[in-house]
Amino acid sequence: MKYLFTLISVTVVFSAFAQRPLPAFHSFRDKFLYLDTNRNYFDKPISSLTDSLVTLVQHAKRINDRELDFIVRIFGCEHAAKDPASKTDAVEKELKQIYADAHESQLKYVEAYALQALRDFYGDSKKLQSEAIEQYMAAYDIYKNFNSEEFPARQTYTYSLGGIYYRYEDYENAIKYMQEAR
Question: In Å, how far are 33, 128, 159 from 148, measured between CA atoms?
Fold first, then answer.
């Protein structure tokens, strides 16, 4: 029954994309929170999200909003990375390209989000833990300059950074970042 309710909810949300005009977003915060708030509706295999994500990317291109385009693509990569069948070099390559394009366009919020997504991509692999921490620190170096109103995930990302230090028994840095996140 729970699955059926979730399926109906997802169908309603996806249908809404096709039938109603998407909202006009005024800031990175609006765009990020739109996807993040609906994250539960998007927690489906990437194959069932493709149409909705394509609709959002087309909307972003139609209104000439590169930031929204990048955010939706990162969101898609995050979901693809959760699916073992989809977690490929193509996801890593896409995230790196989004980061490079955002850097070139001086879209700092997107840069931080892309680096965080790369960290998450690498973080699941024991072989790539040092790369994951490097991406975490690069993302932190960007988003530490923003408040939580500008960059809604700042608190969560900073706390997670503390968790990484805790995992490696660097308690001094773990406490530092966890306290900063409060």
Answer: 12, 29, 13
